[in-house]
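sanity check this chain:
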Amino acid sequence: MQQFLTTQKTGSPMIPAFWYLVMIAVLVLLIYTSVKYYRNTHYQKTFRILQFIQLLILYAWYVGFQIPFSNSLPFYHCRLAMLAVLFLPDKWKSKQYFALLGASGAIFAIGYPVFDPYAFPHITSFSFLLGHYCLLVNSLVYLMKCYDKKLLKKSRIILYTFVLDLFLVGVNSVTGGNYGLMTHPPLIKGDNILINYLVVSTILSLALVLFDVIFQRRKTDHLSTLDT
């Protein structure tokens, strides 16, 4: 338990190939079950409760061990999406935006995991996996049930993304953090904040627009099926 809650940083844990494949398999399984059981009340409640417990435990550790603001604020893309999908009203534009962000972000996060620099197993790595899996399910369930193609234009999705990322750049400048991976993005060399901001925001915008197109087509096909 001491290792699980330690604040002693060691370096990001390495993921053996077998366990990486297991992580991807769980990801695929949850996508399948979410599409199949998104109307099941017990399925919905289970992952919402798990998400709430995961966030509660993680932030209790942050507060209890006085983790610096450079790491402990809820300003990562997926962390914001977790809170939004849990607590915002269904018909808000921002909830649909964050659900799109949550679904795409969870897939990217599990596909290219960036763990906090603590030896495994640790509360942050446990929270990373459980949190992103729950975010994936909760976002997909919401989008399958409540997606409204009239709620968000694609131009607004792009605008929201660039404004959010600009806000995260400001937070990083104040806290010295790497929120949104804007300071040190994976696969991008160099510390040019402007380039990082433009590259990350552009890639994220494209991903969100792609997911929006997918759910828009699904909604259109579903309505066409009902009409026939």
User: Anything to note?
Assistant: Residues 44 and 126 are 21 Å apart (CA to CA). The chain is about 70% helix and 0% strand. The chain has a mean pLDDT of 92. The longest helix spans residues 193-227.
